[in-house]
Amino acid sequence: MPLIAPSLLSANFLRLEDDCRMLNDSAADWFHLDVMDGRFVPNLSFGLPVIEHIRKATKKVCDVHLMILEPERYTEAFAKAGADILTVHLEACTHLHRNIQQIKSLGMKAGVAVNPHTRVELLQDVLEDIDLVCLMSVNPGFGGQAFIPRTLEKIRTLRRMIDEAGLNIHIEIDGGVTLENAPAIVAAGADVLVAGNTVFRAADPTATIQALKNLG
Questions:
Q1: From CA 196, how far away is CA 6, in angstroms rounded?
Q2: CATH top-level class for 3-213?
Q3: Where are the alpha helices (DSSP H) in the chain?
Q4: Would you list which residues are annotated within the binding site for substrate?
Q5: Which residues of this protein are catalytic (predicted)?
Q6: For the whole model, what pTM was predicted?
Q7: Which residues of the chain, if any, have pLDDT below 70?
Q8: Residues annotated in the binding site for a divalent metal cation, as ranges?
Q9: What is the pLDDT of residues 180-195, one digit of tens each?
Q10: Contact 152/184 with Cβ under 8 angstroms?
Q11: Distance in angstroms (rounded) separating the CA atoms of residues 140 and 9
Q12: Active-site positions?
């Protein structure tokens, strides 16, 4: 079964406590928390105070995705805010290996995200050091975009790289995941599905999460 990580970026922020309670009572495995700085991506989202409150509202994994420049400046703060997994973008890190070491030294699992135009082969030299790869299947910055089909081939390539190295690394897909395309995504080798609008805009979010979970 894939792990399901609903993206709180699509939640109703006027009813955030209710949405957190819904996720707690659902089959969701992780809370996916997108942090945007308006520089690395052309949008702003939420930051440390919101994550601190979400952390208090759940015992599930807080999967924090930093779409920001200079993430090393804030890594310790996100650890204190309660991140279990901290993912940084390959494209935003001049010294990626150092960023990964910093994340792990603070007791978090380390993820690396790659944009749609970035080749997964560029991860080869850090694969053994990370716990998760987040493949962006849309251009980062906004929810509600359509899945980029080329991502399926990138999943297959990355899965082959991980398996040949004998590593245990999650492949997370972020962007445009729907009930219709999720089976192909899982079949290609992904094991974590980030779903925003698909979950929070559904008539029955809990049932939608369960349907995604049942794909395995």
A1: 6
A2: alpha beta
A3: 16-25, 48-56, 75-81, 96-105, 151-165, 182-188, 197-200, 205-213
A4: 7, 65, 141-144, 174-176
A5: 34 (proton acceptor), 174 (proton donor)
A6: 0.96
A7: 143, 216
A8: 32, 34, 65, 174
A9: 999 999 999 999 999 9
A10: yes
A11: 12
A12: 34, 174
